[in-house]
Design brief:
Length: 625
């Protein structure tokens, strides 16, 4: 009985976790249904009233792949040959001829560019050191260096694309590397092909921008907060704006944020509501008096962005002042993720075109990761002047209007060589190296494939997938009941739990459900009852030998386990290999198959056995047909 109780507790915990993981999916469905039923101002008000809950549910729901949700799939290719051309320190007629020949060969066949390019020189008895690096380097060293630069150029391209997609605020994008030089970008819900081309193929914009002083930053934030509460205040912006244009009566920001619902000014309002009323802007921020940075929860970022984008709010800012979001979030002790809001000068001090090299390394003095940066002669002169005039201040490194780092200038830096310290991890140093080098020696990226998936196709796919799953489920349930009587009904209950666990695990780990994934679910249904068929047949055989029903059940599970385990573990390993080496649809199928196998073994072995034991304890006789 103690063993039975432990199994019941295990099942209860699994069910609770699955329901907890799937609850946001139900909430998201409910919110979508409500928003669909509303229109115009009602829809907007409802969204703003429940914005936090809607975004949280959307983030934690079972995610749909591109084939189900609709959107765009783009395959990008980094022009490695152009990078090889750009890296050359000198170019003569032979070099240009080899570039042209390899370009022609590349367009005809999918060749690896660098080995083919190097072979051209070797066949003609020309050393690569004539065009690259040091004259004393051998061909093998230069080829290895070129391949390393090519790999880094693809990494830089991926980081630039990911940063742009994040800034574009695409929901649930999928960006992955394919082969040596291709990048697959899936953008669910995106329809404008021209906008996507411009987003993915445009030149990266790298800037070095000075941070504003913390006291000025706080005054600006405070002035915005006071303006939103309707209080009269002099801001740090120029007062000429007031003379040019009569000041409009500010809106009640809390009313606007809560969707137009005016809150009663009574003592019954909660502390949170009081705080929102008194500080409708600052209440969403955590301000650092020392650095001047403000931190905003990831779920509140869109809300703050909308407020800062309003024309009347922009009028309260000083002329040379702009807020820029950090490119990444950081986790705080309270368990939430926060974006950093950097207060910067609008005009950049330098642009990324002056950076000729950046290398991540380790400081030998303290073994902390650093990034060594090198600029060209013109950039070196400007950098020396900038650093000399701003010692002790911070300069932000901004790529595509997202700040990646804001190191402090500790002294004048002549010669264009500088070191960025204060980096927390080697991965962060590597990322910063990629960002800094994004503006120097960029390899062109071209779109070689672009496909649009309409939402109607997604709806049809979902409808067909659900229909196939329901039909398979119904036939399976019917067969088990007809062939195994009430024992088959127990197997059907376990199958329901199996589907609950499968979807719960996918939601909990934020996996993406695709059309091949639905095929994996259908296959899982068949494999789940296969285990029950083995168990029921073994129980039949043991019962036929004259054993009691409880002894037959126990023996049936023990003897069927090895066959069930062997068949499922081999299938699981196959799914693992498919997931590791496959891409796109293959991975979606393999993922649901692996999760389904684990869930089916748990439901077929644990849940059915507990159910049979409970039936026997209560005097109910399981009938195995």
């Amino acid at each position: 009985m103690r063993n039975q109780l432990s199994r019941l507790l295990l099942i209860a915990c699994a069910v609770i976790l699955a329901v907890y993981s799937l609850w946001p999916t139900y909430q998201d469905f409910r919110f979508r249904k409500t928003l669909t039923s509303l229109s115009g101002e009602d829809s907007l008000n409802y969204f703003e009233q429940h914005e936090g809950d809607i975004l949280t549910a959307k983030e934690s729901r079972v995610k749909l792949g591109l084939d189900l949700q609709g959107g765009m799939r783009v395959v990008l290719e980094v022009d490695i040959l152009q990078l090889v051309d750009d890296l050359a320190k000198s170019k003569d007629e032979s070099f240009r001829r080899f570039i042209t020949d390899v370009r022609k060969e590349e367009t005809q066949t999918d060749v690896s560019v660098i080995p083919v390019f190097a072979k051209r020189f070797q066949d003609n008895g020309i050393r690569l050191s004539r065009y690259y690096r040091n004259i004393r380097d051998d061909d093998a060293t230069i080829i290895s260096w070129l391949e390393s630069e090519a790999e880094k150029s693809v990494d830089r391209a991926i980081e630039i694309v990911r940063n742009r997609v994040d800034q574009y605020r695409v929901s649930e994008p999928n960006i992955q590397k394919q082969g040596g030089r291709r990048i697959i970008v899936e953008l669910p819900g995106v329809k404008d092909e021209n906008e996507v081309r411009q987003l993915l193929q445009g030149t990266a914009k790298l800037e070095f921008r000075m941070m504003r002083d913390p006291d000025i930053s706080f005054k600006v934030l405070e002035s915005i907060d006071k303006y939103l509460t309707g209080k009269t205040t002099d801001t740090v912006a120029t007062t000429e704006k007031k003379a040019e244009k009569p000041e409009e009566k500010p809106k009640d920001a809390l009313t606007e944020l809560l969707g137009g619902t005016q809150l009663p000014a009574t003592a019954d309002t909660t502390e949170e509501t009081k705080l929102l009323r008194e500080h409708p802007f600052l209440s969403y921020l955590r301000f650092d008096q020392r650095s001047g940075e403000a931190f905003v929860r990831d779920k509140d970022r869109d809300r703050i962005t909308r407020l800062l984008g309003r024309a009347d709010i922009q009028n309260t800012l000083p002329p040379d002042f702009e807020f820029v979001w950090s490119a990444k979030t950081q986790a705080f002790a309270d368990g939430y993720k926060y974006y950093t809001l950097y207060p910067l000068k609008k005009a950049p001090e330098l642009t990324g075109g002056v950076v000729v090299d950046a290398r991540a390394s380790v400081n030998p003095e303290d073994n902390r990761p650093v990034v060594n940066m090198e600029m060209d002669s013109e950039g070196a002169r400007e950098w020396s002047r900038i650093t000399g005039a701003n010692i002790g201040k911070r300069v932000a490194i901004v790529l595509d209007n997202a700040a990646f780092s804001a190191p402090t200038i500790i002294g004048k830096i002549p010669g264009g060589r500088s070191q960025i310290t204060g980096i927390e991890s080697p991965n962060e140093a590597r990322l910063l190296e990629i960002v800094l080098r994004a503006g120097a020696l960029p390899a062109p990226v071209k779109i070689i494939e672009q496909r649009s998936v309409g939402p109607s196709l997604g709806e049809d796919s979902i409808r067909s997938g659900i229909s196939a799953s329901l039909i398979a489920f119904a036939f399976t349930i019917l067969f088990m009941i007809l062939y195994y009587n009430n024992a088959g009904f127990v197997a059907d209950i376990a199958l329901l739990f199996n589907m609950l666990f499968l979807l719960g695990v996918m939601a909990g780990f934020k996996a993406t459900l695709t059309l091949p994934g639905i095929a994996g679910i259908v296959l899982t249904i068949g494999m789940a009852v296969d285990a029950n068929v083995l168990i029921n047949e073994r129980i039949r055989e043991e019962f036929a030998t004259g054993k009691t029903l409880r002894a037959a059940v126990d023996a049936g599970y023990v003897k069927a386990f090895s066959a069930i385990f062997d068949s499922n573990i081999t299938t699981f390993l196959t799914g693992l290999i498919l997931y590791q080496f496959g891409t796109g649809p293959v991975q979606g199928f393999a993922l649901t198959l692996m999760i389904g196998i684990v869930a089916s073994m748990f439901s077929a072995i644990i849940i059915t056995r507990v159910t049979f034991n409970l039936m026997i304890d209560r005097g109910l006789q399981p009938n195995f047909g």
